[in-house]
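for the writeup, i need someone to sanity check this before i put it in the appendix. the sequnce is what the collaborator sent (i think, or maybe the updated version? ugh). structure was predicted straight from it, no edits. if anything looks off just tell me and ill rerun, i have time this weekend
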Amino acid sequence: MARVRTGVRAMGAVLAVVLAASLAGCSSTGGKRAEERAAEAAEGRAAVNTPRWTFAMVTHSGDGDTFWDIVQKGAEQAAVKDNINFLYSHNDEANQQAQLVQTAIDKKVDGLIVSLAKPDAMKAVVAKAVKAGIPVITVNSGSAESKEFGALTHIGQDESIAGEAVGDELNSRGRKKALCVLHEQGNVGHEQRCAGAKKTFDGTLQNLYVDGTNMPDVTASIEAKLQSDKSIDAVVTLGAPFADAAVQAKQTAGSKAEIDTFDLNAKVATGLQTDKLGFAVDQQPYLQGHEAVDLLWLYRYNRNVLGGGLPVLTGPQIITKDDADALADFTKRGTR
């Protein structure tokens, strides 16, 4: 069985997700109807007869980001089940992301899901959506700003808590000097992760800023740091694609540092199984997409809101070699 370490708030979030699923799946006919709905969704048919609302999701993803592919897959599968016309767009430039949100507003969508990696650039346009009567759910980034901006709730992990979990895990592994690799400058969630790790880590943690759009530069930057400081015994990357770059840098530098990472995909699962990686912090992106659509549907249908003013947490989960075998098949199909 997979070993999962979460805080009390994370456990509350899991319960919230279960409640959401129950509300969406239960009816007066009980389990039989729930099974019928699951079968309908599996066949690509709507499991409800509510109006065909249009929901838009606009994220700060760059091209080819496997994390956001998983978020999108969860959202798309929920949209089929909930009879939703789902629109997805993304841009890693904050101003362009804001413009995409404005486009969704102009289309008069029935619900909006948006990430707030750079909240200052998104505040005004999210306010426009709320003023236009469009219900908004924030996802992944921006939990601290979500309520202030007028969103119904936020779905994701608390980045500070996730960082603190990393610091605790590094302590349990006897690490003394760690490098936290930030691949997107200006992303408040990334800063919170490293700050959280530094708060609970008993050793020394240093931030390293790299250009995440240039993977050779990422590898070279980590390699140079490991060559110049042989006392670094842990490298923490903030996204699954960057873990592989860190592994390559370690090998070239002749370092003995353990490579750990945020996020999970098939390559990370394999890295855990083969001891190339020590641990991963999974925030369950599939849940972030799936539950965002589900909660918007619940709001449109029944004015349900989860969270009680607090984020609905999907993580963190600390994933190790012991857990990787159980999750490998899910990562291969692109849902973990």
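Residues 8-25 form the longest helix (18 residues). The mean pLDDT is 89.
thx in advance!!
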